[in-house]
Amino acid sequence: MKISLTLLFLFLFFCFSSSAQNTTISQDTVNLRGVVIGSNGTPVPHIAVRSQQKRPNGEKIWLGTITDNDGLFTLNGLMVNDTITVDGINYGRQKYYNKGSRLMILILPSEKILDLNSENPIEVTAKRIAPKAIPSINVSTNDRPFLFVSQTPEFPGGNERFLLYVKKSLSYPDKAIKNNIEGTVEVAFTVQNDGRLNNFMVQKGIGYGCDEEVLNLLMNSPRWKPGIENGHPVSLKTSVSIKFSLADQ
């Protein structure tokens, strides 16, 4: 992965700018300085970096910090051989092994998508006007990755308000009704740290105008409450699911 010269310069300047803080606490510990980088090569601010240690007397302690606005961090008093844990709402829990290094660049994997409701999609119904040819089968998965979450994004007013917004704003397309189209539409998007929604992508669609209905619903949504990471609003990839069902007359 290529990291910009500016970022490298910033990291090295941070590491060597204050020699007084680079002294080790004792012979069997080290002070670690580093930077956390996202998969796109940009620094990741406000993310937790920590290490759990077991002292010779058996006591377990946590050493931890939060990256600054430039993704930089300092951990003092680490064991020479230590495991560094990075916890983030966008990335889950990642572990990095440190073997006596004083400087580390921690590169995170791609951001995960926070699934809000695929196992319980919001249902939109209409009366069936044509014979039902093939029974619908609803498939759900339970293998979603665990996310380390401080506070997830939320529609203003919470889930009940979002349900009312969907019921009021979304219509079952006539083309889908005439062709007996049923199923679940899942759309991924990003809730920015100011609550705006963008980067829309249909993860699972059924066509016949249903996908477009859900996209338009989200594109015209009011601003959400953003996700919170260690007290700071963060951008988060999110997905919602809406189920289209036809009721027999």
Q: What do you see in this structure?
A:
- The chain has helices at 5-16, 159-169, 174-178, 210-219, and strands at residues 29-37, 48-54, 60-66, 72-79, 81-88, 92-99, 103-107, 114-115, 122-127, 183-191, 197-204, 227-229, 232-234, 236-247.
- It folds into two domains: 5-107, Carboxypeptidase-like, regulatory domain (Immunoglobulin-like), CATH 2.60.40.1120; 114-247, Fusion Protein Consisting Of Minor Coat Protein, Glycine Rich Linker, Tola, And A His Tag, Chain: A, Domain 2, CATH 3.30.1150.10.
- It is of the alpha+beta class and 249 residues long.
- Residues 16-27 and 134-149 have low confidence and may be disordered.
- Strands 8, 9, 10, 11 and 14 form a five-stranded mixed sheet that branches.
> Architecture of the largest domain, according to CATH?
2-Layer Sandwich
Question: Poorly predicted ranges (pLDDT <50, ≥5 residues)?
Answer: 16-27, 134-149
Radius of gyration: 24 Å
User: Based on DSSP secondary structure assignment, what is the total number of beta strands?
Assistant: 14
| SS element count, helices | 4
Largest sheet: 5 strands, mixed
CATH class of the largest domain: Alpha Beta
Q: Write the CATH fold name of the largest domain.
A: Fusion Protein Consisting Of Minor Coat Protein, Glycine Rich Linker, Tola, And A His Tag, Chain: A, Domain 2
Note the gap between the termini.
Answer: 58 Å
